[in-house]
Amino acid sequence: MATTSLGGYRIGEMAQRLGLTERTIRYYEELGLLDSVKRVEGGRRIYTDDDLRRLKFIQKLKMLGLSLQEMHELERLYRRHGSNRQVLPRLVELLDAHLATTEDRLHELAALRDEIRSYREHVSRRLLEEGEPT
Known about the structure:
Elements: H1 11-18, H2 22-31, E1 38-39, E2 45-46, H3 49-63, H4 68-81, H5 87-130
Antiparallel strand pairs: 1-2
Helix pairs in contact: 4-5
């Protein structure tokens, strides 16, 4: 990947590397999820390796089910306390909540699967009882 003369990445390079759109990266910045990005002549954004790690972390949290609002809450905690001491316990609480929701959903899906199987068997028996039309 090409870097700028300042050793950073352009927004298009970051977007391509992470599989995000440039608009998404700008949105994360607007929300305060991404620290103030450096700019060079002409106002172009320059992203660092720290920004890359941060965006990967945001993607991971999103994949784990955290909302942007929850991520913003974690960011506010970090900025208020300047360390992860209060952030990590809250992250564990959020992950536990999402885990419980996922477990509930899995049980619902298993029940739905069983209902579909049962009804399919019922319909198949009806077909056999009535015989195939000639």
